[in-house]
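> forwarded from #structure-qc
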């Protein structure tokens, strides 16, 4: 059973991670006033402001940074001491998992994962947050992030991984462009992408692959949300480059066509990463298996090109 002190410690780590009362409240399952009250109790307890408002958001004090790892160690030891030894039962677990995922992988994997969770673990909570590449390793290491789903080609110290989705990049455009896409069309059609880290990384990978073949495409339009991209393609000369599994979702209710690129593009391999400290955690292992099962359902759906 978690004591009031342990609950305060947990709230402190979440506040330090999010640097925002509103986002911390969401993860804690509390209202913003209740979370602000917890911060007040922590300030009184440690005799320090801990987090100070600034133009860039809330920033930690020196004292907060000093005690952060100490608090983390106390919580970890408490969890090891109080964790039941009996077999994990997903039907009664109330654990909250935090997953980092791009817009692509969230759109593909979240629906089958949530369907599986509602059926097998109705009390488990899942928070999907956008990628934060600069802090991803730190967050996996300190436990504020359970899983990171990413398209990466490098390995990281102390991280375990499992493949989720193997896919290919395709072109999506209005049907009026014909049955196939010529090299000239591919190189000259205005291309639209979203303004986020995943698309920036995807663009870089595509540009590097094309450069090796002596080609360059025309990136013309940048939008905030990829969900608007399919509607921008209808009755226009625009094109988007995206994973096939995602593209096939967008052609169901729109006069769009999936075109095979007339050039060689790298494969898409989405992988789940987690820290080694959770390798034998029964609940974490169950989530990983659930995510793998959700990913397998994607390949079973019929494709319409």
């Amino acid at each position: 059973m978690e004591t009031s002190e342990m609950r305060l410690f947990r709230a402190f780590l979440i506040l330090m991670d999010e640097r925002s009362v509103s986002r911390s409240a969401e993860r804690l399952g509390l209202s913003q006033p209740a979370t602000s009250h917890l911060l007040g109790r922590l300030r009184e307890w440690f005799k320090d402001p801990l987090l100070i408002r600034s133009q860039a958001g809330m920033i930690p004090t020196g004292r907060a940074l000093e005690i952060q790892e100490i608090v983390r160690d106390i919580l970890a030891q408490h969890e090891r001491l109080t964790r039941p030894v009996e077999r994990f039962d997903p039907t009664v677990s109330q654990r909250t998992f935090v997953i980092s995922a791009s817009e692509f992988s969230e759109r593909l994997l979240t629906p089958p994962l949530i369907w599986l969770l509602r059926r097998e673990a109705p009390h488990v909570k899942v928070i999907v947050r956008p990628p934060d590449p600069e802090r991803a390793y730190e967050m996996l290491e300190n436990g504020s992030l359970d899983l990171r789903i990413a398209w990466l080609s490098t390995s990281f110290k102390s991280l375990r991984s499992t493949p989720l989705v193997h896919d290919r990049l395709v072109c999506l455009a209005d049907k009026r462009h014909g049955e196939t896409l010529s090299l000239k069309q591919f190189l000259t059609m205005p291309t639209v992408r979203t303004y986020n880290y995943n698309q920036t990384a995807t663009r870089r990978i595509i540009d590097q692959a094309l450069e090796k073949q002596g080609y360059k495409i025309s990136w013309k339009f940048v939008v905030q949300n990829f969900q608007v991209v399919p509607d921008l393609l209808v009755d226009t000369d625009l094109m988007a480059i995206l994973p096939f599994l995602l593209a096939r979702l967008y052609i169901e209710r729109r006069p769009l066509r999936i075109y095979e690129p007339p050039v060689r593009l790298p494969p898409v391999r989405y992988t789940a990463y987690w820290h080694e400290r959770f390798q034998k955690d029964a609940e974490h292992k169950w989530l990983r298996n659930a995510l793998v099962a959700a990913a397998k359902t994607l390949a079973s759906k019929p494709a319409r090109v």
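QC bot note: Confidence is low (pLDDT under 50) at residues 301-305. The radius of gyration is 22 Å.
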